[in-house]
Write a structure and sequence with these properties.
The chain has 158 residues and is an all-beta fold. Helix content is 0%, strand content 42%.
C-alpha cells in the first residue's frame, strides 16, 4: 500500500514485512509528521513558522510540550537548539557578517570553531602559466589534424 498527494510526494508505504510508514504534509508540501507503525519506530511532528523553518519537534500527534525547539536569526540561520521541556539551550551558534560560524556552544561549553584568514595572500591559480598551449598532434579520435594554438588566460582562468 502507498498513497500520494495530488502532484506531490508519497504519503506513505508498507514494507514487505508489513511495517507501515506514514507522512503528512501541509499545503506547501512541507513535512508535518512522520510515523512508523513499529514498536519504537519514528514518531515526529514538525512545527514550522511562516518561513517554513522547523521551530519545534513534537511527536506526530503534536503533544505539548515540544521535544526540541529551534531559534533562527533574521537571515534564517540556526542560532539556538533548545530542550523542549526545560527551554535550556543545548547548542548555540554565532555568525560573523559574511555568514561564517564564529561561535559554537555545546550544552554551555564553548567549543572552538575553524577560522579562515580575512584575505588569502595569493590565490591558488596565481602560479598558473599566463597561457596554456594545446599540442599540435590531435587525439586519435579527432579525425582531422589541428594546428597548434594558444589560449590566453588571465588570473581568473578566463
Amino acid at each position: 500500500m502507498s498513497g500520494y498527494n495530488p502532484f506531490g510526494p508519497a504519503t506513505g508505504w508498507t514494507y514487505g514485512n508489513g511495517r507501515v510508514f506514514a507522512r503528512t504534509f501541509d499545503l506547501n508540501y512541507a513535512v508535518q509528521s512522520l510515523r512508523d507503525s513499529a514498536v519504537g519506530g519514528l514518531d515526529l511532528g514538525f512545527a514550522r513558522n511562516e518561513l517554513l523553518q522547523v521551530t519545534a519537534l513534537h511527536n506526530a500527534a503534536f503533544a505539548m510540550p515540544a521535544k526540541l525547539k529551534f531559534d533562527y536569526d533574521t537571515l534564517s540561520r540556526l542560532t539556538k537548539f533548545r530542550d523542549g521541556d526545560t527551554n535550556t539551550v543545548l547548542e548555540a551558534y554565532d555568525y560573523d557578517a559574511t555568514g561564517n560560524r564564529t561561535l559554537f556552544t555545546d550544552n554551555g561549553e564553548l567549543r572552538p570553531t575553524l577560522t579562515r584568514p580575512a584575505a588569502i595572500a595569493s590565490p591558488p591559480w596565481a602560479a598558473w602559466p599566463a597561457a596554456m598551449t594545446r599540442p599540435a598532434t590531435p587525439p586519435r579520435w579527432a579525425g582531422r589534424p589541428r594546428s597548434s594554438s594558444t589560449v590566453p588566460m588571465d588570473g581568473s582562468r578566463r
